[in-house]
Amino acid sequence: MLEPGNNDELPPIPGKRYFTIGEVSELCAVKPHVLRYWEQEFPQLKPVKRRGNRRYYQRQDVLIIRQIRSLLYDEGFTIGGARQRLMGDHAKSDLSQSQQIIKQLRVELEQVLKILRR
Prior knowledge:
The structure is a single chain. By secondary structure, the protein is mainly alpha-helical. It has a single domain, classed as Multidrug-efflux Transporter Regulator, Chain: A, Domain 2. It has five helices and three strands. It starts with 18 loop residues before the first strand and ends with a helix. The relative contact order is 0.16. Residues 1-6 have low confidence and may be disordered.
């Protein structure tokens, strides 16, 4: 599923609650129009829409997008295959996403520790 090694080249996810489509585009190395298309294809991906139909993604959404990106670009799945994999691996997905969150928190804590040691 979402192997830690698959996303090493992607930047760490900042500790924010909401992200704009532009920020998510940079965090996941996917263009905004692709993100909008994936919203139609993957029911798990539902960003909050606010004033003016602006999309605001949460950390969970960013993790799902990284997972989709990995399935499509790294593992060679089709859209339909990736959709089935995400739906079929819901329990594994939760575990994998938890591991990804823990990894991200660890990176952030190490950065804070470096700052405090200065």
